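At your convenience, could you comment on the folded chain following this short note?
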Amino acid sequence: MSKCYKYAVKIEAGQVMRPDEFPPPSELVCIHVAKVLDQAALRDCVTRIITLIPGTGVMYPVFAFEGVTDFDIAEVRLVSRTDSLLKPRTKNLKLFVKLRYKILYSDGFNKLSVIDEAGFNITVNEIYCPSCLTQISSIKYPDEQVSSFSNEDGLLIKVEAIADAFNDAICVINGALALDVGVFFVIKCECIVQLLVPSYGYCPVPPEQSNITSQNCSTFNNKIKTPFPRQFFPVQKFNPLDVKLQSKNLKEEL
């Protein structure tokens, strides 16, 4: 008898389980998904010089940098894709990625903002990016996502980025702001494929949420009614098997 029947475990979305604890699936399902064939992680940093403009009527501004927000990928362009001479069946990619963001600053009297863009020339060597048209018959339409590029052979190149701005300095003479924009990139080569996967049925309907009482400082400062949010830390779905495993390991140690 499988251990899952012994413990009568309820399978839920987001639950982490050991492979030997999975019950038999209710069915095998053929799904149509974008499969990540290969990916590469890299980083890049550029220095930007931006001229800050004072608000209307301000003659003698005293500029102050307040931060950068709203990072977004504005453009992804595949410059070239060539065969690697060192590793068979892999490609060398050259990409251009444009990042757009909002700079927040003050002229001493007004809160202001300006939109700026930074371009990154990215080279990814020896990544597995094959032609996808021979793997599945499908019509590829232009992709609406700016953060990805759909090639004519069905290959989907996706770019993910996490950016930050730092090392800022303002010239008091001309109001020029210099800052560094550092970005962590993950480049993914994907193909639309059909996969046969085990299924445990449809996702359960979530329970209905009750109406929350009005919030005020009294309830907010109450640590029982309003506990500190857990969003600051990674949250794992509770798995009853972990408790049984810890109990078993503790008994063995004793």
User: Anything to note?
Assistant: Strands lie at 27-51, 64-83, 91-106, 111-127, 148-150, 156-170, 176-199.
